[in-house]
Amino acid sequence: MLASCGGDDDGGSDTPAPAPTVSALPSPTASASPAPLPSPTATSTGAVRRTNVATFDNPWAMAFLPDGRLLVTEKAGTLRLVTTAGVVTSVSGLPAVAAGGQGGLLDVALDPGHAGNRRVWWSYAEAGSGGKGLAVARGTLTIAADGRGSLSDVTVVWRQDPKVSGDGHFGGRIAFSPDGKLFVTAGERQQGSPAQDLTKTLGKVIRLNLDGSVPADNPFTGTAGAKGEIWSYGHRNPYGLVFADDGRLFESEMGPEGGDEFNLVRRGANYGWDAVSEGSRYGGAAYPRHATNPAVAAPLVSWTPVISPGGMIQYRGTMFAGWDGDFVLAGLTAQGLVRVRVTGGGASEVARIPLGARIREVEQAPDGAIFVLEDGAGGRLIRLDPA
């Protein structure tokens, strides 16, 4: 089962909590989605040289600072500062984190204006009335002469609604659009049908102004009862979110038993969960496929057996020949990296890079090298160079 489950083997059960009663809301008119392209047989390349940099306790995400150091999150609630030589210190000042299962301290990202304001953003699970939910906060980073960091002016900018019981499907990826908007992936918290409910921010991609307010041009600001911050819906457990160089937004998410997805995210579109999926119910029948409902957006690529996607980047550089412009996905079940190439309105997998461990996160270094984080206790930060 673990080999066929979406990334639910990273902690927590996929047994959904009782779904709340939801009212049917009209689907927006979705622009035609390209038909998913079948993934060719993946080409394994092992042509990478590995350098171990540091070891962490259940690391989840990382971000490069302008001086070349990295911020690394650990799910238990610690933000680390690490040099590329492997010197690790801590950053203080984070709010309380509700760690457990798939929840905890999750993504970390630099503000678009970080060079001038030193602002850092992060996502995390927080406890509250009704259980736990995703939250996004920001703060100003100061690094002392001894290498230790601290956060000040900490502000919680957004909270998922409602909070629910359980420790699964938080999502939590952060990305900034070219026009300076904040995008966040909010998992459906193993609730299923609320991913289709516009009165809740479960199973959605969220779009906000940097002060936390709702942009007036969001797709559902004029829909009665809908949450104005919703950009797209019908998502399950989205762990990758990247704005490509052409300005388009791409997302990857974990399916149930089969059916991991790589999606082009469009304004107001419905991605189908949990009415349709390219996967199956755990131990049961297949879901109706996206093709059965023309109102939903189909994935550009889907995987069965799954890869269990973690973080994702679009590689821009020449160090890895032939990779420029490709999307590189961290693979948990795949135990390596998965390269996806977008061509026009379609996409396909073009190669896999086996690393022999569950890979939670991937980032590109300023010099074009690739850094990955292994999943779990003792997860290593590894630099990859061409062999």
From TrEMBL:
SUPFAM superfamilies, alphabetized: Soluble quinoprotein glucose dehydrogenase (SSF50952)
Name the UniProt record assigns to this protein: PQQ-dependent sugar dehydrogenase
Any Pfam family matching the protein: GSDH
Highest taxon, organism lineage: Bacteria
InterPro entries linked to this entry: 6-blade_b-propeller_TolB-like (IPR011042), Glc/Sorbosone_DH (IPR012938), Quinoprot_gluc/sorb_DH_b-prop (IPR011041)
Ranges annotated as biased composition (Low complexity): 13-45
Gene3D superfamilies: TolB, C-terminal domain
PANTHER family recorded: ALDOSE SUGAR DEHYDROGENASE YLII, HEDGEHOG-INTERACTING PROTEIN
Domain named Glucose/Sorbosone dehydrogenase: residues: 56-383
Region (Disordered): 1-46
